[in-house]
Amino acid sequence: MKLREQINRISGLRYVTDELCIHSAAGRRCLMEQEWLTDKVAIEELLSRVDTAISFRSEIRKQRGIEEIAHKLTQLHDIKGTIQTLSHRTVCTDIDLFEVKYLAILNEDIRDLIRFYELEGISSPLPDLSHIVSVLDPEEKKIPHFYIYDAYSIKLKELRAQLKIETDEEKKSIIRNAGLEEEDVVRKQLSQHLSPHATSLETALEMLGALDLLLAKVELFVQLQWSRPRSAQQTTTLVGLVHPQVLCILGEKGDTFQPVDISIPKEPTLITGANMAGKSVLLQAVALAQTLYQYGFYVPAAKAEICPVDNVMLSLGDAQDIREGLSSYGAEMMYLSAIADEVKQGTTLLALVDEPARTTNPIEGEAIVGGLLSLLGKREVRALVTTHYGSIGIPCRRLKVRGFREDKVKLPLQVNALGKCVDYTLEEVSGNDVPREAIRIAEILGVNEDLMMECKQYLCNTRIA
């Protein structure tokens, strides 16, 4: 599963990738083609490269080397198509040969910088393309330009010399055509000579793109002060977790984002809280942190220990199927069905489900939530499920958003200020402890007194009954 397949599925992932200052198209392609990693060793290898690059920033000399390499990478062109042409033994054009020469020179320059500044830890050894440079740059000028040099053919050299001294236009035309034919012969010879090196050129292009991506990651992680996640065995633990895009939006408004601590063991966790309690954002932040980790990124948390999974399945009730005409309930149930199918197949999942069955009647809604928790519990699936339902009898771990804090209210309370009166801390609870804050919040907002009186009377009668 490539990152490009996740970019519109995981909230905040596009925001993160857009914030990366990647200099080259090859680096951007490398980002989008990153594979979803489940092997801890492979994930740790990527993260270790980031660790090494960050550690080099504390040494002035090595930091200078990294800056020089970053500047060089601004000149990296994505010539994957040209390399494929070369590998198919097709005769290259002058533009093709120029692109190959330019990549080979750039590769050698960056190899030299890595050796000179002792930066070997930021990349696997780049391939040696010095032979390609010597073939395409026989005059050893390292100029970003390609020309069919006289050195490639004695016959061509002689024809060009004749052309300079010939005065008869008809003869000049004959010499010129003969020279063009000889140039075609040289292009064919060069293409045949370089074709066996196509694999090395492709390796160099991919590694330089990966290096561009690595340096962009380092800049972003340092700037945002993200933390290096550790691979965990049993329980995922996220301390001081934030959603970076929401954090940015709130910051632009002068508001703050309250970081959240949460652990996710190998069992479902039921989370309750009022509508404004940030449950949806929490699930999105968890999904983003898990996804970033499995693509070798640091994560937006103060501390993170994460268990790798085969897939993250996030249901927020806003599936594409809804926009395609399927009812919200129908789309949601089909997604829950997909989760159940994955569980049945033995897929290691992180399931994140926001208020399932919220649009159906409470009796059946509670049955659906209970059935989902029971299924996930039997298969020991890591899951966070949020709900408003208060009679879920299935044994499971339960958390509650601490919720509305009346002591934080500044009257008159405006609707857009409600979030400032909420404590988003998660507390472990036992039993069906659901929030009962809605009517009191409505009263503080100044909702019609007669309506509030009727609501409270109805609630009182219901409790008595």
TrEMBL record:
One Gene Ontology biological process: mismatch repair
**InterPro entries associated with the record:** DNA_mismatch_repair_MutS_C (IPR000432), MutS (IPR045076), P-loop_NTPase (IPR027417)
Gene3D superfamilies according to UniProt: P-loop containing nucleotide triphosphate hydrolases (3.40.50.300)
Key words, A-Z: ATP-binding, DNA-binding, Nucleotide-binding
Task: State the coiled-coil residue ranges.
Answer: none
Q: Name one Pfam family in it.
A: MutS_V
- The superkingdom listed in its UniProt entry is Bacteria
Report the GO molecular function annotations: ATP binding; ATP-dependent DNA damage sensor activity; mismatched DNA binding
Looking at the record, the residues that make up the DNA mismatch repair proteins mutS family domain are: 266-460
Quote the protein name from its UniProt record.
Answer: MutS-like protein
Q: What is this organism's lineage?
A: Bacteria, Pseudomonadati, Bacteroidota, Bacteroidia, Bacteroidales
